[in-house]
Amino acid sequence: MIEAQGLTKVFRDKKRGEIRAADGVSFRCQPGQIYGLLGANGAGKTTTLRMLATILKPTDGTARVAGFDIVEQPEQVRAHVGFLSTATALYGRLTARETVEYFGRLNGVDEPTLKKRTDELLTLLELHEYADMRCDKLSTGNKQKTSIARTLVHDPPVMIFDEPTVGLDVMTARTIVGFIRDCRARGKTVIFSTHVMSEAEKLCDTIGIIHNGKLLREGTLAELRQQTGLSDLEDVFVQAVESAG
Amino acid sequence: MRLGHAGIVFRKELTDVLRDRRTIVTTIVVPILAFPLLMGGMIGLMIFFARQAERQTAPVMLLGAESAPTLAQKLSEQEGFTIVPAADDYVQRINDKQLRAAVEFPPALEEKVRTTPEETQTVSIYHFEGELRSRSALRTIERAVRDYRDQAVAERLAARGLSTELLKPFEWKRENVASAEKVTGVIVGFIVPYLVILFTLTGAIYPAIDVTAGEKERGTIETILASAVSRLELVTGKFLLVFCTSTLTTVLSIGSMAVVVLAGAEYLGRLTGGFVIALSGKAAATVFLLVLPLAVLFSGVLLAVALLARNYREAQSYTTPIVFLAMLPAVASFIPGLELNAKLALVPILNVSLVAREIFTGQYNWSLIGLVFLSSCVYAGVALWFAARQFNREEVLFRT
Predict the structure, then answer these.
(1) Three-class secondary structure of residue B303 per DSSP
(2) ipTM
(3) CA-to-CA distance for B195 and B330, rounded, in angstroms?
């Protein structure tokens, strides 16, 4: 479960002054559901997700992730979260297996469980053949699979995906999309950011439209259509952004 | 802080860094090979130039040789000397390095030496001051001229029925009472503190950049920050790695240098029968102990500064001024007369340089050594705190 309450993040820039990257963002995401944050570049998606993953501290507001407060208990939050984005690269000099084991250990998985779980994940993701290959030698697809294994090694109840398919080829992107669906099927709470309408339409149970750091609209795809009288998600998105000025 | 988690980070960083060829080269290969190669190269060059000098003859001109036939003959018999015909342009030829030296004898020198003992004659030797080969010829000429004069003095004394012993009412002898360890310590204490500080610093630079700016450049910083490790555990693990490589570089460099120096000294000792060198284990161990907080200081400062950079190249430009700043007080051991006192014991880096020099020369002022160690520990603690603080600053971690 994720419950965000008035999440706000203010950055101070010498040239641009105060930037409110996230401005009072509140939403709730239930287990077994995918919540999609839909927004253009610079809308505040990454900042919001980074705050949920406790990589950034909120300037104001807070959130409870898997029952832990992101401000008060950041380490417990991280231990119960799997975070994947295009910015979360792998250690090139470690092998795929070492990578998975490293993050398993950091997330407190005991050694016998870690061995078993690493083997299971490598088999599930068809990575066994490449398990002892250095990550910098892996193909893009296998790198993404290793990243998936890394996020799943401690079996977190909450998964956070920040534009996970950006820059990936169709086949690799399909693997990621399939993996996100699989997380939902296993009852995990999933939050996912994208600027690709079709991805949001296909995947999300609830969609939140974010612009200039503010959550403008929220609901299921059907609810959003009903609210706006528009059938196409892109039209819904544009109307929300334009009406916000 | 969970030490186990810091240990996990340390082990991963160690694996990572040991698979990086650049780190292996800068941390292990260069420290082991640099000094032997440098020494080997220098000795090789010296042998080459010495042999070349042996093959070359030294052209020397004698002016007015007819007034001193015995001395002229003696000079012409000097090894490597070629006597060239007298000419007026000897000054120009010495300046052009065509002539090593010219010797001018006053008129009727030998006759006057024999017949007018009350009159002192002057032989002029023209040479090129500072020019090595001219100086070598000058020394040979002076030796020959001195021998001739001593012989003339002996003849004069003999003519009066006196012994040359009359000129030596007493003799003196020199005897070294310092142990070989202390004699070695003076030389070692002069240069080794500087080198130890240099290696401690250079050993920390590359890994410090790799685990901070390198991590940013490779895009793994967000990956690790999203894991269950705390910032303090993360910085501790990274710090341990940098500290270990810094210490390893220092130990390997100094070890390799000691092996070369000791082997060289043993070889020289066998050749000359008198060259003895000895290094004190106690001194080496005490200096090593004092270098440890210095390694912590360098590791902390470099981690904190390199983390400010967005990429590897930027980090290199940020760390370069640190090298200059650190090496300035490190040269203290080279300054004669600069003695360690309670005030200087509080100056970072300089204190280690001075105390290490004292220790190598066998002076163990334990209260000052303790003060240096304690003040270094305080600076090291501040550096570590500074590094840990940087890892908690979002504007540093996500600088774009």
Answers:
(1) helix
(2) 0.91
(3) 9
